[in-house]
From TrEMBL:
PROSITE patterns: RESPONSE_REGULATORY, SIGMA54_INTERACT_1, SIGMA54_INTERACT_3, SIGMA54_INTERACT_4. Residues 134-358 form the Sigma-54 factor interaction domain. The keyword Transcription applies. One of its GO terms (molecular function) is sequence-specific DNA binding. The modification 4-aspartylphosphate is found at residue 54. Keywords: ATP-binding, Nucleotide-binding, Phosphoprotein, Transcription, Transcription regulation. InterPro entries: AAA+_ATPase, AAA_lid_NorR, CheY-like_superfamily, Homeodomain-like_sf, HTH_Fis, P-loop_NTPase, Sig_transdc_resp-reg_receiver, Sigma_54_int. It comes from the Bacteria. This is Two-component system response regulator HydG. Residues 5-120 form the Response regulatory domain. The keyword ATP-binding applies. It holds the Pfam family Response_reg. GO terms for biological process: phosphorelay signal transduction system; regulation of DNA-templated transcription.
């Protein structure tokens, strides 16, 4: 049996040496070749499970080598390395399913790490995947991760849909890192944090004197992009007037600073994210329908943690080990974690782990180790008094939750499985 079923090919000796260093952990399984013809001869006489090859090489191009190797080993997992001037040709083959992954040069260690994780999952049947900052074995999340390289190479507008704490920024960063703009800045704009009266200048910039207090020129995020990517998080919280200006930028590729008539070309990509279902956001009047059609071309939907409960213990273990702790979970806390809806999603779970590791030295973790707001939800506590948890909440539910949480509205919102803002609205509706 071939002990080196992984074939790495690059005619640039320097690049090949760098790849050897990056892949040193797998050295015993890899055959390195500096020419496509010698690589083909090796493939003709040995089993090949993975082929990582450069594209532009003399005699046989990378794509031609891939075609010939796949004719011999049809199940081979293929990764093509190339520069961006081959982009159109590569995308065509990606769409023809000739390629499994594409890496743009120069290649980073993280790029190769992501590839090795994908190979393990695809070829070795490994259930757990650690990719793009995600730790998962959930099928829905795995499908999302598989969309990332295609979305990145498509060049199409991407809209990421998911609740707060589900990992939308991680996906946006991963798309940027695999796109033609990976060498540029990745700028995160949290739309809820934009000051309403200054949002336009924060996004598009302003000239001195454009408004009271503008004592100097302001460079906006869109100008700072300069060949990079802007991630507009929670776009549905952006003022509708500003959404209209954003639509204009998308349509024309141009914008102007506030108080200036000079036109600036927008040199960047936009990835957006919303924390509501798309149609619900449009119906609620917090997302313009015309902007939705412009930005929602490739939609990536991240499931909340309550829909990926098979990941809860895996994530708990990962977060604990990252903090240099190995703990066991008692049956009572395991039962609770599976029954709790995690309104803060993965971010909430991570904070719970951080709390436990910081506050306790116990090797076995039980419900008594949980933060106080969660202890109130355990058996005999608030959870049994609020079976609806997020749905059909009545005035009496709100009163009970507030009493259970000593009138701490943040904790009461968690008990009810709703956001703090939703709780405030319901308190006003019921005149409490």
């Amino acid at each position: 049996m071939n002990k080196r079923p992984y074939l790495v090919v690059d005619d640039d000796e320097t690049c090949l040496e760098v790849l050897k260093v990056m892949l040193s952990d797998y050295e015993g399984h890899i055959r390195f070749e500096s020419s496509s013809t010698s690589a083909l001869r090796y493939a003709e006489n040995n089993e090949i499970k993975v082929l990582l090859t450069d594209h532009r090489m003399p005699t046989l191009s990378g794509l031609e080598l891939i075609r010939r190797v796949k004719s011999i080993h049809p199940g081979c997992y293929v990764v093509l390395m190339s520069s961006f001037d081959d982009y159109a040709e590569v995308i065509a083959e990606f769409n023809n399913h000739l390629l499994d992954r594409y890496l743009s040069k120069p290649i980073s260690a993280q790029d190769l790490l992501n590839v090795t994780h994908q190979v393990k999952r695809t070829l070795l049947g490994q259930q757990e995947v650690f990719d793009y900052g995600f730790v998962t074995k959930n099928e829905a999340v795995l499908k999302v991760l598989e969309m990332v390289p295609r979305a990145a190479k498509s060049g199409l507008p991407v809209m990421i849909v998911g609740e707060t704490g589900t990992g939308k920024e991680l996906i946006a960063q991963a798309i940027h890192d695999q796109s033609v703009r990976k060498g540029g800045e990745f700028l995160v704009c949290s739309c809820p944090n934009l000051v309403s009266t200054l949002a336009e200048s924060q996004l598009f910039g302003a000239v001195k004197g454009a408004f009271t207090g503008a004592d100097h020129n302001i460079t906006g995020i869109f100008e700072e992009a300069r060949g990079g990517t802007i991630f507009l998080d929670e776009l549905n919280s952006l003022d509708m007037k500003i959404q209209g200006k954003l639509l204009r930028v998308l349509e024309t590729g141009k914008f102007s600073r506030l108080g200036d008539h000079a036109v600036i070309d927008f040199d960047g990509e936009i990835i957006s994210a919303i924390n509501l279902p798309v149609d619900e956001a449009v119906k609620a009047g917090c997302l313009r329908a015309d902007l939705k059609y412009r930005m929602d071309v490739v939609r990536i939907t991240l499931p909340p943690l309550r829909e990926r409960r098979d990941d809860i213990f895996l994530l708990f273990k990962y977060f604990a080990e990252r903090l240099s702790r190995s703990v066991q979970l008692a049956d009572d806390v395991r039962h609770f974690m599976l029954s709790y809806d995690w309104p803060g999603n993965v971010r909430e779970l991570e904070n719970v782990v951080r709390y436990i590791v910081a506050m306790y030295d116990d090797e076995v973790i039980g419900c008594h180790n949980l933060p106080s707001y969660l202890q109130k939800l355990t058996i005999g506590g608030a959870l049994s008094r609020h079976p609806a948890h997020g749905k059909g909440i009545t005035k009496n539910d709100i009163i009970l939750a507030l009493e259970d949480c000593d009138f701490n509205k943040g904790d009461a919102a968690n008990v009810l499985g709703i956001s703090r803002m939703t709780l405030w609205r319901k308190i006003k509706e019921h005149h409490l």
